Amino acid sequence: MRTPRTPRTPRTPKAASTPSAPSSPNPLTAPGAPTSPNTPRALTTPKPPTSPRPGARLRALLAVSALCAAAFAAPGATATAAAADRTPLRYVALGDSFAAAPLVRPADPADPACVRSLAGYPRVAASLLGATLTDVSCSGATAEHLSTRQYPGTAPQYDALTEDTDLVSITLGGNDTALFNLATGCVNLLPKPLGRSCAATHTAGGKDTYADAVDAWAPEFAAVLDTVARRAPHARIFVVGYGAYFRPGGCFPVQPFWAQDADYVQRTVDRLGTVLRTVAERHGATFVDTAAPGAGHDSCAAPADRWIEGAVSTRDAFPLHPNAAGSRAYGTALATAVHTSPTLRDRAAHSR
Questions:
Q1: Is the pTM of this model over 0.70?
Q2: Which among 153, 168, 264, 339 is least buried, having the fewest CB atoms inside 10 angstroms?
Q3: What is the distance, to the nearest Å, from the Cα of residue 27 to the centroid of all Cα atoms in its chain?
């Protein structure tokens, strides 16, 4: 009889395997493969930890902080700031006839009583700056007319100012100190001694009538700047001075002012400019000088080179007032001053 064979142990059936792409690496052994908490770790010998590079941790923290700040920033904040930078400057022009440029064409039909030009220095500056302009300058204006109606239907100039105003220009004082009356009263058609010197008249006894008037007006102009700042609290204020009317010694008889009288008129204009500059600087405003750049372009220059007309105008302009060329020059000087202002430079660049 044969010895019965020992029965074989039945084989355990193999579990079915999921086919995979032959080129796919094994996620448990592929170097640098990401793992999750539910994925078994590869059975490899752990490597000793390495120290991070110097500064790497700081860079990582800064990166995380930046991401967090971006995630929690107010939606649209960056876009809003960029849009604000592109908003045109809101510019209000205040002042008298030096700003209004009477008889310089074309005339502004908005307020005929003010004899305001559409080519005065405020319009020139606004064009160069890409600004939105509200020009309320008015021929004959004094500080009183900033808060009261100068003519029926003409609103007080202060009414143009708002909290949204970015830029304010102002030229004032010529009428308050009767400076224009002085100039016209100094005309002498005949040479010495056939006439009377206005300089001698107004400085008789060692007292300079017009110098005293200019100095006495300084506190009133200070109050004007305070009011402008209160009504337009976010605006930069630019005080534009009066120009060069006469060169030293004048040019009689080209202009009918004796030498001493021409010097007296220009000296008084310069004194008013000094007051405007001093008060402006004390009140945080910027003074824009027009006399220095106007040298050689006074009323004694050849007609084609004048920025200010003489006693008799040879071009479209009121006598002893800026013509179109002068208004362009003064507007350019103002725009240049705005461009150098740190708070308005970028806005003006984006507006153009």
A1: yes
A2: 153
A3: 64
Find the helix or strand (DSSP H, E) in which 100 lies.
helix 97-100
The first and second tokens of residue 15, run together, are: 């579990």
- Is 17 considered catalytic here? no
97, 299, 327, 351: the catalytic one is 97
Closest CA to 170 of 137, 125, 196: 137
Q: Which of 145, 202, 297, 321 is catalytic?
A: 321
Taking a C-beta distance cutoff of 8 angstroms, is the pair 225, 279 a contact?
A: yes
User: Any catalytic annotation for residue 321?
Assistant: yes
According to DSSP H, which parts of 188-258 are helical?
198-202, 209-231
The distance of Cα 147 from the centroid of its chain, to the nearest Å, equals 24
Tell me the residue type at 305.
D
CA distances from 273 to 158, 168, 211 (A): 22, 18, 12
DSSP state of 205: G
* Structural element, H or E, at residue 67: helix 56-72
Q: What is the pLDDT of residues 5-50, one digit of tens each?
A: 444 444 444 444 444 444 444 333 334 444 444 444 443 444 444 4
- 3-state secondary structure at position 297: coil
